Predict the 3D structure of the following.
Amino acid sequence: MRSGVRLLLLSALVVLMTACATNKQEEVLPEKTYYENAREAMNSGNFNEAEQNLDALETYYPFGRYAEQAQLDLIYARYQNLDLEGARAAADRFLRLNPQSEHADYALYMRGLASYNLDLGLASRYFPIDVAARDPGEQVQAFRDFSELLNRFPQSPYAADARKRMIAVRQRLAELEIHAARYYIKREAYVAANTRARYVVENYPTTPVVEEALIILAETFRFLDLKKGHQDAVAMLRENFPDSEALNSDGTFEANLLKRENRSLSSVVTFGLMGDE
């Protein structure tokens, strides 16, 4: 009986101590304290602590004196913590809550920057991942964000960098198409390779990979016995890249990327993805 009472008292004591500890953890600090703690943490490079204080500030004082600045700081703190999706979400929230803010250009820029780097995070530092082979979705989103920034705030201090990144995004997207074209050439899917190369020429004509796109077009058109397409592609290559290695000294096209091989009907139908039986 006595042991049962002791056990009951011990359990009650544990519950009481846990409740006290919980109450202590949930102690709400003044709004200014959270903000100053966050700023001090950011200045010292401790973005984890900064984020914790900013989250608390938003939780307990969502309409307080420091609310708008705290939302901006939270975008930056998450970005510095490599929480790129979190940074983008924080930027979305800021733009939703403060559509007329004079700092909306910063939120747009940071949202675009987060998307721009989302597929270039920690993995690329340690693994040889080809940027051009990745899903372009995040790059397209970054392009949209930077484009919106330039349309709404052409005089923003972030506009110049946004323009440079938009050029880089276009180049990445063009490289992705060329990467796909090379893949289809290896699989002997020359119609698909031609389509990818043509997309680059039509949509990314100022990117560095246009020369290779024209070479692929000329080669695949010739292989498919489409003389007009081949002649047009060679003419464009000759006009825009007269020193191309695909042209000999008198300007004649001499590249030879493709080779004709016997292939089964199933391989042709599946673009070579399933191989020959």
In short: The two ends are 80 Å apart (CA to CA). The chain has a mean pLDDT of 83. DSSP finds 13 helices and no strands in the chain.
